[in-house]
Amino acid sequence: MDRFQDGSALATLLGDWTAGPGPLYRKLADALARAAEEGALRSGERLPSERELAGVLAVSRATVVGAYDELRAREVLERRQGSGTRVNGKVRSARSDGGVRGGRAGVIFQRLIDGPGPLISLACAAEQGAPEVTEALADVVREDMPDLLADPGYHPSGLPLLRAAIAEHYTRLGLPTGPEQVLVTTGAQQALVLVAEVYLRTASSVVVESPSWPACLDIFRSVNAELVPVPLDDEGIETRELAAALAAHHPSLLYVMPTYHNPTGIQMSATRRRRVAELAARHGVTVLEDNAYAGIALEEERGTAPLPLAAYLPSGAEAITVASLGKAVWGGLRIGWVRGPAEIIERCARRKALADLGSPVIDQALAARLVPRLDELAPARAAIQRERRKLLERLLREYLPDWRWRSPDGGSSLWVALPEGSADVFAQLALRHGVEVVPGSSADFTGAHDNYLRIPFTLEPAVLSEMVGRLARAWTELRRHGPRDNRPLRPII
Predict the structure, then answer these.
(1) What is the mean pLDDT of the chain?
(2) Given this structure, which CATH class describes domain 106-128+380-481?
(3) Which residues form the HTH gntR-type domain (predicted)?
(4) Residue 143 DSSP class
C-alpha cells in the first residue's frame, strides 16, 4: 500500500521544508529528494497528485508542479501512465527507513534532533528544570558520592534507594506499593517501550483514547499492534464505546492517560476511573495508565484528587502505571518508572538490561532526593503553568477570537479547534510564519480532530505573545487566500 498518497502524511514526513533561501518549488523538490535518499520515501512509492499536495502544503499547484518537474529532471521521480507520480526505481536509498521522520511523531523528535533554530516550536511541551534540582545535586555530591562510587553501578531494575522512594510515593497516594513493584527507566518513553515489548505480540490490539499523543501511539505501531480508538468526553474515556471496543477486540492493553490527558488536559473523574476499572476487570484486559502530567493541576483542587487508576481495580485485575519526573521536575533528568505486578516488573527489567544495563546511577540518586518532594515540586510548577495558561488564553481571545478550546484541568497545553479547514494545511502556513505546530491528525488517526491544534503554554510570556502574533498572521493569510489548490492564484515562490 502506498503510504503517502494521503498528502497530510507526506507533509508530516517533510517537516520544516520551507526553511532557508530560494523559491518554494525548489525547497520542496530538495525536501522530497532528501526523503528519497534517506529511505523515508521508497523506490516505486506513489506520491499525491499536484492538486492534493498543494492543498495540504498551502501552496499554489504551480509550486508542486515545479517541484515534481524538477525531480523528474533529476530522475528522482517518474510519471507512470495510469499510475501517477512515483519515486523512480533507479533511486538508491540509504539502508534505513528514514529515521524518525517516518512516524506520526517524527516532527516532534526531529525538532529535538535538529534544534529549534529560528522557529518557535510547539512540538515539545517542556520547561526549564526546577531550581530544587541544583540543591539536590549538591546534596548528592556532598553526601552520596562515596557510597555510589563504591558500588559497581549496574542496577537494571533501578537504584534500590530510588525504587523505595517511588514505592513510598505511591503508598502515600493511596496505592500500596513495594520496591519490587517498581522499575526505573530512562524516561516515560522507555517505560512504554518496555511494557509494549512485554505485552504485545503479532496480531495484538491496544485500545487507546482518541485523541492521544502520537509518540505513544507510534510505540504500539512499532510492534505492529492494531490501535482501537475510543473517544473522550469531559470526564475521560467514553465508557459505552469502551465497553463495546473491549468486547469486540479483546485487546492486550487498554492505554489511557487519566491524570491530565495529553493533549486535551482532561482529568478523568473518580467515578469514571471506577467504571473503567470495572470494565477492564470484566474483560480481563491489562490497564496501562500513563500519568506523565500528574500533579500539574491548572485549577485549585476541590477535595481529594482521584487516586491512580490502578487503585480502583479489584483484586486479581492487572494494571501498569507509568510516570516520570519530566513534567514536575525536569525532562533533562530522564528518570521515569513502571509500577506494576512484581513478575511483570521483572520481565520488563530483563528487557531493560538488554537495552542499557540500567539508567545512570547519579541521576537516580538525584531523583531519589526529589521524589519525596513531589508533593511540593509539582504544585510549584503548576502555579507557573496556571499563569501562562491564563496569558495564552487571553492572547488567543484577543487575536484569534473565533478559535475555540476547553480550558484544561491540568497539563501544559491547549487543545484548540479551528472554526474551519484543516489544521494540516494551517500548520504549513504557520511554518512559513515561523511557528511549528502539531496538527490534530497526528494525535487522532480517525479524522475526528483534523481541525485541532495542540498549543503548549510552557514558553516564556514574551515568546507566547510573539507566537500568538505569528499564528494570527498565518490565520489571516489562510482566511484571505484559502488553500491554494483549486483556484488560479499567483504562485508563491
Answers:
(1) 90
(2) alpha beta
(3) 22-90
(4) I
Over the stretch 168-201, which tens digit does the pLDDT of each residue have? 999 999 999 999 999 999 999 999 999 999 999 8
Spatial contact of 307 and 170, defined as CB atoms under 8 Å apart: no
What residues are paired with 321 via a beta bridge?
A: 289, 339
Distance CA 383, CA 375 (A): 13
Residue among 270, 199, 278 at smallest CA distance from 246: 278
Q: Over pLDDT 90: what percentage of the chain?
A: 77
C-alpha pair distances (Å), 484 with each of 4, 46, 128, 407, 478: 20, 22, 39, 33, 9
Q: How many whole angstroms separate alpha carbon 240 and alpha carbon 62?
A: 48
Q: Tell me the whole-structure pTM to 2 decimals.
A: 0.86
334 within 8 A of 366, measured Cβ to Cβ: no
> What is the model's pLDDT at position 106?
55
> pLDDT-based confidence at 107, cuts 50/70/90?
low
Partners of 389 in beta bridges? none
- CATH number listed for the domain at residues 132-375: 3.40.640.10
Give the DSSP letter of residue 369: H
CATH of 7-99, one of 1.10.287.130, 1.10.10.10, 3.90.1720.10, 3.90.1300.10: 1.10.10.10
Helix 106-114 crosses helix 7-14 at what angle (to 10 degrees)? 20
